Amino acid sequence: MSGTTPSHAPVPADPIEILRTLIRCPSVTPAEGGALAYLDAVLSNAGFATHRVTLTGPDTPDVENLYARFGTRGPNLCFAGHTDVVPPGDPAHWRFPPFEGAIQDGRIYGRGAVDMKGGVAAFIAAGLDFAGAHGHDPDHADLAGSISFLLTGDEEGPAINGTEKLLRWLADRDERIDHCVLGEPTSRAALGDMVKIGRRGSLSAMLTVHGRQGHVGYPHLAENPIPGMVKLLAALKAEPLDGGNAHFQASNLEVVSVDVGNPAFNVIPAEARARFNIRFNDLWTPETLAAEIERRMVAAAGNEVRFTLAFEARSSDSFVTAPGDFVDLVVEAIAEATGRRPELSTTGGTSDARFIKDCCPVVEFGLVGTSMHAVDESTPIDEVAALTRVYAGVIARYFALFGR
Fold this sequence. Notes:
The chain is α+β, with helices and mostly antiparallel strands. The protein has nine helices and 19 strands.
C-alpha cells in the first residue's frame, strides 16, 4: 500500500531516545554511571559482539570502556567517542536538572548533550540501523566489511585508562581498525560547517627562577627572582615559534600561571614560578619544541638569571589526516545531510584522536560545541537527527568505496 511501511521493515533507531537515556546516566569521570551498560545491552541485542573492558593503572582510578563490532571481515570502520562528562556544577543554576534529559522548545538539555553523548547517540543510531538492515544473516556474509564502536569513560579526566589503553587491548587481540570517525563536537556555528582532520600538539612546562629571600629594606642581601622571571617570559613571547602552514595555524604559547607564594610586603621571595602551555603544529615534535624553548631561556638568562625548566611528561603530538578518499567521503556525507561543505580544520584543543591516529586515519565530526561544559548544555534535537544521517551516509559511502 502506498504511503505505508511494510511490516517486515526494521524500525529506525531513535537517536533522541538514546541520547535522553545516556544523559540520565550520571557518568561524571571516572564513574560509568550506567551509560556503557546501557549501550552494551542495546548493541548486543542488535547482534554486535561487545566487550566491556576495565582498564587500570597505578595511582589512577579504574575506568570502564566498551568495544563493539558488527561483522567479522575488514575493512573495519570505527566510530569512537566517550560517555564520561565533566561535573555539572551547582544543579540549582541549571534551567532543568543536568541529568534529566529534558526537551523544551526543540532542544534537549543535560550534561553531555553536546560533549559528547549527542555524537554517541547519533552514531549508535546509525549503526543500529545498519545492523538492522543486515541482521538477517548471522554470518554477515553479505557485509562488505565491519563497523565498530570504541567508547571510553576516561576522556574528560586524565585519559590514562581509556582510549590509548583500549587501542592496545585491541592490538593484543589482533583486532584492526582501518578508519575512524570521532564524534566530538566540531561544528562551530552551524552543524556541518567544520570537520577536524587533525589536531595541534600540546606541551606544558613549569619555569622556576631562583633567587635569595631577604628583607626588602636590604635588597643587597637578597636576590629578587621576579625581574628575572619577567625577562624570561618576555623572551618566550618575543619571537613567533613559526608561521603555520597549509593545514595548521601558527604554534601558540600561553603563560597560564605566575606565582611567588608571597603574602608579605616586606619580604623578597626566594623563587618565582610560571606555568605555560604550547599548542603546536606539525613543524615541531615535543622534543624539538622543548629544545627550542630551552635554547631561548638559556640565551635570555645569560649569566644573570638562575632558572630550572621542567616539561610535563604527558605531551601530545600534532597530526593531520591528509585530504583524500576518506576525508572526501566524510565531507560528502556532511554536505548531503546538512547542505554545508565543511571547513577542514586542525584548530581547538586535544582529543582522543591523538591516540587513534597511531593506528588508522581519523577525522572528527559532531555537533555545534558552543554550550559544551556550560550550564544548560543543550543541542537542537533536529541537529542530532541530522548528525545521525551524516553518520549513516558515511557508512554507506565507506563500504561503497572501501568495501570488499
